Amino acid sequence: MGKVAVVCTAAACAAVAVALVVRHRMRSSGKWGRAVAIVKEFEEQCGTPIGKLRQVADAMNVEMHEGLASEGGSKLKMLITYVDNLPSGDEKGVFYALDLGGTNFRTLRVHLGGKEKGVVNLESEKVSIPPHLMTGSSHELFDFVAAKLAKFVSSEPEEFHLPPGRQRELGFTFSFPVRQTSIASGNLIKWTKSFNIEDMVGEDVVGELTKSFDKIGLDMRVAALVNDTVGTVARARFSNQDVVAGVIVGTGTNAAYVESAHAIPKWHGLRPKSRETVINMEWGDFHSSHLPLTEYDQALDAESLNPGEQIFEKIISGMYLGDIVRRVLLKMAEEADFFGDTVPPKLRIPFILRTYHIVVMHHDTSSDLKVVGNKLKDILEINSTSLKMRKIVVQLCDIVATRGARLSAAGIFGILKKIGRDTIKAGEKQKSVVALDGGLFEGYKKFRSSLESTLKELLGDEAAEMIGIEQSNDGSGIGAALLAASHSQYLGVPES
């Protein structure tokens, strides 16, 4: 009897072991199924079929009209830049640029040689801004900037020295929200980034900079106050007169385009110098019920420094794409044990996964996705991942990047529609070019190709032949100098 009992017990143990293995496999299968379901649901919510993209473009078009009709009439600010004289390509001479928009600023000296020579020479210098100047007083900040600019000017080659009585001219890129009052004046609306200089809010930034010039005897005139998107238009127009718009898709995103003066009702009857001017859309703040938002986007927005604002930017720009992927992975870790029985602590840290990490993982072409595995290990301290897990990560990168690229294309299509360049009119052969800049467009090949193919899909083959996309680098630097040249007080004056 004892032996039989032992045998039965052994059999029972084996049965229990088999049952445990089966249960574990079923449990693992169930968890994997839940992980796949989360990804599938996310993909569906991020969907951008062509019909939805057309709705987004139409909504953008409506907001553009309303923003041009009255101040505050739209989520889109549609700011009048007073840039009514874009570069023609004939500009010659030496012009300066000051690019201030973060913890560093740049000074540039640009030698222009007209249509034949283009940008002959470019010299630049980067300067770090001491942290205390970012929260001090306006005169302290601009005195510091003016002193560094004066030192840069002092290194000017003798061949560039101007004749007596002729001022050097500067294009000033100031990448903070400004309400412009002329081509060379504008009042600061609010500081962003790490700046908080209270006495500057509401004041004319060019006026403050000029005061600092006067203190040290720097004989220089600010000929144009611009932002980097308007500079992108100018940089591209210098070499291509078919440019009608500029778009930046990088850490942030924005668009500017050339608008007919008669299509701007809020100009209140003021007659501009020319028939057209550049409009700074501030399109990052665009919002529409047609945008494919997910629970992850809504959570990111709610936890941001500016909830309810910059919705378009938060789903297409480089600042946010990596964190959207992180949020999906976190849900998979919490609800499906995607990375094991415990949630990797680093996965809970906002913005630990940056968009440049996404680019590298998305572009991984190795058979075992080794780069993806290494990134997960280095950034999130996830030491062991299977190939199918890595494929899921790449899939998430693709979903987020594709949505961003296709929505960017829809925005561009909306601009082309507003200015009547989305279709081919009988007998018309006018080509239109959109200049793009920014790290996503420049460095994220899959993003770029998706944007370009989507725009072609929206336009149709015939219209797409008349629309060009070209990269325009350094609108905030060279573009600003070009706008100083095209708005020079010496236009028409022969070079000495």
TrEMBL record:
Enzyme class name: transferase
Q: Which InterPro entries match?
A: ATPase_NBD, Hexokinase, Hexokinase_C, Hexokinase_N
* Enzyme Commission number(s) from the entry: 2.7.1.-
* Listed CDD domains: ASKHA_NBD_HK_plant
Residue runs in coiled coils: none
- Any GO MF annotation of the entry: D-glucose binding
Pathway recorded for this protein: Carbohydrate degradation; glycolysis; D-glyceraldehyde 3-phosphate and glycerone phosphate from D-glucose: step 1/4; Carbohydrate metabolism; hexose metabolism
Q: What is its main location?
A: mitochondrion
Q: Which residues form the Hexokinase N-terminal domain?
A: 39-236
Q: Does the keyword Acetylation apply?
A: no
Q: Which UniProt keywords apply?
A: ATP-binding, Glycolysis, Kinase, Membrane, Mitochondrion, Mitochondrion outer membrane, Nucleotide-binding, Transferase
Question: Where does it live in the cell?
Answer: Mitochondrion outer membrane
Its Gene Ontology biological processes? glucose 6-phosphate metabolic process; glucose metabolic process; glycolytic process; intracellular glucose homeostasis
Entry GO CC: cytosol; mitochondrial outer membrane; mitochondrion
PANTHER family according to UniProt: HEXOKINASE, PHOSPHOTRANSFERASE
Q: Which family does it belong to?
A: Belongs to the hexokinase family.
Q: What is this protein called?
A: Phosphotransferase
